[in-house]
Amino acid sequence: MSLPPVSRRTFLRQFNCAAVSSSAILNTLLNLKLANNAAADVLGGGTDSKALVCLFLSGGIDSYQMLVPWEQSRYNSYSATRGAFGSDGGLALNRDTLLRLNGTASDFAVHPSMAGLHQMATGTGAFAGKQRLAAITNVGTLVQPITKAEYQAWENGSNAALPIPRALFSHSDQIEQWQTAVPQGMIELTGWAGRAADILNSAYNTNATSMSISLSGNNVFQVGNTTTQFVITPGGSLSFENYSTPHQLKNAAFRSTLEQNYSNLLSQSFADLTKKSDDAQLLFQAQFDSATGDLGSAASLFPANNYLATTLSAVLRSIKIRSALGLRRQTFFVNWGGWDMHGDLLTPQATQLAEVDAALTAFQLGLEQLGLANDVVTFTASDFGRTLRSNGRGTDHAWGGNAFVMGGPVDGGKIFGTYPDLTLDGPDDVGYGGRLLPGTSADVYFAEMLRWFGVPGNEMASVLPNIANFWNPLSATAPLGFIKPA
User: Fold this and answer.
1) pLDDT tens-digit profile of 229-243?
2) How far apart are CA 132 and CA 109, in angstroms?
3) Paired strand residues for 232
4) pLDDT 10s digits, 280-312
5) Which of 240-249, 257-266, 390-399 has the lowest mean pLDDT?
6) Quick one: which of 153, 291, 378, 450 has the fewest CB in 10 Å?
7) Is residue 421 one of the residues assigned to a domain?
8) What is the pLDDT of residue 279?
9) How would DSSP label each residue in 140-205?
10) How far apart are the C-alpha atoms of 407 and 453, rounded to whole Å?
11) For strand 401-406 and strand 133-140, is the pairing parallel, antiparallel, or unpaired?
């Protein structure tokens, strides 16, 4: 008996299997199994459960509209560079509408559409007494620390050997580099969350369900050498049984073929792999739909007609059922695009930021209500920052930008990294209308979270190959300090 034909696209979509060759599996399986067994000897102690949630703002968000100087002289520089508020083509936000931060961050403010995140940062309103949000400023892809002079020498050809991230300012390349943490490029792509899962999975997790859960389809971020991502939707898993009635008979018939025994080794392997994947999907869905997965009154926190909020409510349910799935470590990937605003910035960005603000606020409030706040760190990432100078109505591709991280473990209400000089052609601007040279490497941003997540210092370089160029992984000092000491 032979299996019915299945397209490669269908196979990858329905069964969440990475396109890796059998020879690659044979070459790496034994070594990784031994490495994971060794890791289990020193990892996995205690009963803690942790999750990392990545919100990828694809398109390259103009994040210097999200975190704006409030102190007057710095605001004046921001306004002069971005174009004065109210002027033709000006992008500077009105200082009177900005939401000022407090404490050590009081020289800065956030976008007026970020009211919930402002409360999260200041410990006010719905987050009274709980400062859950911090900002990471001027962060970007780097292979090693470089200066403006070094970059300009590389650009004019006199320092060609300087290691610069490949294809700077390209959407696809920079998205890849933020997800791989290897800006010099890779032959076979794996992501830093996937490589972390290779190390942590066998030590912390006891179920066949992958710890790498994506609500935005396939991505590089969660693919490891042995780790594959587990793709779900806001409604749960992707299994034969979840499809609509007209397809159920066909899918039931296909499922029955997986129960057969085959003399052909390739057919049997395909059937076993497919059945295992579908079993994992069914297990996930059963728990997702169970009383364990019910959010109760927390469900009402998520606003209707906000797809990102609906997506994050599914993330919350997936975290809530972690014990039933045997998962003490999880990563989640959510992609939210539309930020490539070359032709119009002010109004579209305000609208989209309001949607993101409402969704993230509901998600964090849900974690608080369910007693999960101290177990989850949520962070933003994007292709790159954008030019400080207006191109008329919008902005163009640049380099360093700002990111936000939130959760109970976060030392909230603070800004980490060095906020750059926003003067056009100033010490941090490498040209072309205000492209900022990153002052903080994406590696140390990631390392801070991975350290909390459980990746040991002696394994950090296998997850972040360039980390030693920015921080000693064996150091007792935190990379940036935005995660509170345990």
Assistant:
1) 999 999 999 865 554
2) 16
3) 237
4) 888 899 999 999 999 999 999 999 999 999 999
5) 240-249
6) 291
7) yes
8) 77
9) E--SS---HHHHHHHHTTTTTTS---TTTT-HHHHHHHHHHS-TT--SS---HHHHHHHHHHHHH-
10) 13
11) antiparallel
Would you say residue 440 lies in a domain?
yes
Query: How much is the pLDDT for 281?
Result: 84
* CA-to-CA dists, residue 169 to 164, 178, 340, angstroms: 12, 12, 12
Nearest to 152 by CA among 430, 349, 339, 451: 430
* pLDDT given for residue 207 in this prediction: 76
| DSSP letter, residue 133 | E
Domain limits at 361?
A: 48-233+329-469
76-86 burial by CB neighbour count: b if 16+ within 10 A, else e?
ebbbebbbeee
Mean pLDDT (the chain, rounded): 88
Distance in angstroms (rounded) separating the CA atoms of residues 164 and 143: 6
Lowest mean pLDDT among 14-18, 85-89, 244-248: 14-18
User: Domain total for the chain?
Assistant: 1
CA distance 322 to 330: 8
CA 435 – CA 429 distance, rounded (Å) = 5
The rounded distance, in Å, linking the Cα atoms of 13 and 229 is 11
Confidence of residue 398 (pLDDT cuts 50, 70, 90): very high
The residues that bridge with 237 in the sheet, in sequence order, are: 232
Contacts of 278 (CB under 8 A, 6+ apart): 14, 15, 239, 240, 255, 258
Place of tokens 């000089």: 421
CA 159/CA 441 separation, integer angstroms: 21
Looking at residue 269, what is its pLDDT? 61
In a domain, 481, yes or no: no
Partners of 236 in beta bridges: 233
Report the alpha-carbon distance of residue 386 to residue 394 in Å, rounded: 9
Whether the CA torsion 423, 424, 426, 431 is positive or negative: it is positive
Structure tokens at 148: 């403006």
d(CA 4, CA 109): 59
List of residues 6+ apart from 410 with CB closer than 8 A: 132, 133, 134, 377, 482, 483, 484
Answer yes or no: are the C-beta atoms of 312 and 365 closer than 8 Å. Answer: no
**CA–CA gap between residue 196 and residue 416 (Å, rounded):** 24
**326 three-class SS:** coil
CATH number of the domain residue 443 falls in: 3.40.720
| Nearest CA-CA partner of 447 in 395, 401, 405, 400 | 405
Distance CA 27, CA 158 (A): 42
